[in-house]
Amino acid sequence: MKKLFFALIAFVLFTSHVMYLKLDTYFLEPDTSATINLFNGTFDKSENVIDRDRMLDASLVGNGNRIEVDGSQWSEKDSVTLLNFQTGEAGTWVAGVSTASRSIEMDAIAFNTYLEHEGILDMLDWRRKNDKLEDAAVEKYSKHVKTIFQVGDKRTNDWQTTLGYPIEFIPLDNPYDLNTGDSLRVKLLLNGQPLANQLVYANFKAPDEGHSHGDEQDSATEHGHSHEGADTETVHEHTDNGEDSPTADHSHDSIDEDGHSHDEETEHGHSHEEKNNQTAEHSHDKESEHGHSLDAKTEPEHRHADESEQSHSHQVAAEPEHTHDTTDAEEPHQHTSGQQLRTDTNGIVTAKLTADGIWYLQTIHLVNTEEEGFTHESNWTTLTFEVTHGHGADTHTHTDEEEEGIPSYVYWIGSLLLVGILFFWFNRKN
Amino acid sequence: MTTLAKKKLVSSALLLFPLLLAAHGVSSGDQEILNNGGLLSYIYVGAKHMVTGYDHLLFLAGVIFYLQDFKDIVRFITVFTIGHSITLIGATYLGIQANEHLIDAVIALSVLYKGFENLGGFEKYLKNKSPNLLLMVFIFGLIHGFGLSTRLQSFEVGTSQFLSKIISFNVGVELGQILALIPIVFIITKWKSKKSYGAFYKAANFYLVIAGIGLFIYQIYGYFYGH
After folding, report:
1. Is A6 part of a structural domain of the chain?
2. Chain A CB within 8 Å of residue B164 CB
3. Which chain B residue's Cα is nearest to A211?
4. Of A330, B21, B31, B226, whose CB neighbour count within 10 A is largest?
5. Which residues of B touch A78 (CB under 8 A)?
6. Which of A281-285, A301-305, B129-133 has the highest average model confidence (pLDDT)?
7. Does a structural domain hold residue A218?
8. Is residue A228 part of a domain?
9. Which residues of B168-190 are buried (b: 16+ CB within 10 A; e: fewer)?
């Protein structure tokens, strides 16, 4: 019973944050200012910002040039890290961010739950088969993310740029030459080499009024919809197997050599509520209140709402990069919904682009390691891009000036003409 | 008829109608401005939306046509402002939204209504006295405010300074409204003394009726076939 209790708590708590590069629209005009949002959390909600000193690389690639992002181009809004830039010349552009490795220490239950929840099923299976389910873990992890967006109409070959990250998706087709209903082939590289037999998840976020091609849709990706309120965003995801995602999440950015740092922009407070009325809540709302030690090796204690003695340790020592409140806790949280794919011997997966929307591919490559102080090493990567159903990029720029390709001045002229004609007609009649 | 053919037909038809383009889409440029500009950017985007969101202005132009003096104009515009401020601030704060096509379709009907009323449609065709204009302006103000709120909610506003952002957007709407009304009031009042005012009055209000119908069809089409 105790084991089950801790498993339930771990299930709720041990959900790490996936990183994504997102744009409001992936079809931009040349030479205009634009913003890329760096999310760390779920695809729908970023839980925390990313410190610039954590980024090993931030690059924009367009028209054959790789431009290093200047530190001053970054800003923050709520829990989102924003990259502000000028789009430059027309072409298919790539942006990428690679972060330094960090580590996390977990007990066996937490680690198993995390593997299951993040869809790292191969490692979970290996632990089962090798009787290692009782082993705790110290995981060294790093995240490397890419996005591909289209500036203007001109397609360029930058979409296939290899940024040289430890793990990286390389499309084999330009996503902006494809439309809804097509398939996208993507090669997965680990340290520059094709990574075979790796689980990859592909999913999409439909636009507000988008549609999907139901007959072609992968069963696992159906039924995604969102309601965006002004204050909070509530996302419902349904999968065919009826599983709901956990109700809360938690990230562990851990043993940083510099210890545990907090900046003013990062609040620490989260609560977790389970559906079966078992409440596992721990709060460290303000820096002064929370119980994390700055020492990398100490165990932070979390106070539970029920004031029982159940504290759990996940020996986190880096900046806790998350903010949870009860609202967050009620939001479904799913990291591995969508199409479950596996790379072939050449490291290639084929994702069916079944619907309009912003698509994201993600994978976590996690292996055992002999490196001193660690039991496991993982590299996380995501790739984002937008898919439309073939009306052309200009129908998706959402500008005030045009819709369906007809500039508004045409309507203004038409209006004046009509008023003029009516005026002369009535004037003559008089 | 294919969807593409239908769209072409509607687009062609729209060209024949005046000001049918309800250019209310969320602009990525505006989102950029909001992301980087603080509260002033909300004032700017609110003003811009009012100036370019001509369905609101068409309705106001229709109201002004009906009025006799400056005092009346101030009174009616104030009522309209109170109406749209209530729903703009209230609905945005509470996160209440409607389908943008449907709310814009109702706004289109308000334009049609005003043109129809100005042309004496109630007396002529319905054999009825037109409803109290001040009350109708207030009701339509509420509807227009709800439309503005839906637009504001389509932006990524964030949670910090939320109420201040809404109020800033509303202030922008009022500023935009004043800016747009100045030339409208000027043209209408100056033209009143001319001999051709009767023809201008009829032409402009017929135009409001046509624009209202066209906008309504456009929004309903967008509701069923848009994406």
Report:
1. yes
2. no
3. B227
4. B21
5. 158-160
6. B129-133
7. yes
8. yes
9. bbbbbbbbbbeebbeebbeebee
**pLDDT tens-digit readout, A343-354:** 999 999 989 888
Measured CA to CA, the distance from residue A188 to residue A381 in angstroms comes to 9
The per-residue pLDDT of chain A, averaged, comes to 71
Q: Is residue B9 part of a domain?
A: no
Each residue's pLDDT tens digit, A34-83: 899 999 988 888 888 898 888 999 999 998 899 999 888 888 887 889 99
Distance CA A177, CA B77 (A): 50
What are the tokens at A131?
């009787």
Partners of A401 on chain B (C-beta within 8 Å) are: 23
Domain annotation covers residue A111? yes
Report for B4-8, B20-24, B202-206: range of highest mean pLDDT:
B202-206
Question: How distant is the Cα of B139 from the closest Cα of chain A, in angstroms?
Answer: 24
List A233's β-bridge partners, or say none. A228
> In which domain, by residue range, is A383 found?
2-396
How many CB atoms lie under 10 A from the CB of residue A141? Answer: 21
Residue B43 lies in a domain: yes
Residues 47-106 of B with CB under 8 A from A: 48, 52, 92-95, 97
Which residue bears the tokens 């800016």? B179
Using the predicted structure, report yes or no on whether residue A175 has a pLDDT greater than 60. yes
Overall domain count for chain A? 1
Number of folded domains that form chain B: 1
- Per the prediction, chain B carries an average pLDDT of 83
Q: What is the ipTM of this complex?
A: 0.79
Q: Measured between alpha carbons, how far is A200 from A416 in angstroms, rounded to an integer?
A: 56
Structure tokens at A307: 């004031």
Which residue segment(s) compose the domain that B180 sits in?
Answer: 27-225
Chain B within 8 Å of A229 (Cβ-Cβ)?
yes
Query: Which residues does chain B have within 8 Å of residue A28's beta carbon, measured at their own beta carbons?
Result: 28
CB neighbours of A213 closer than 8 A, spacing ≥ 6? A180, A181, A354, A355
Burial class (CB within 10 angstroms; exposed 0-12, middle 13-18, buried 19+) of A4: exposed
Within 8 A of A423 by CB-CB distance, chain B residues are 196, 199-200, 203
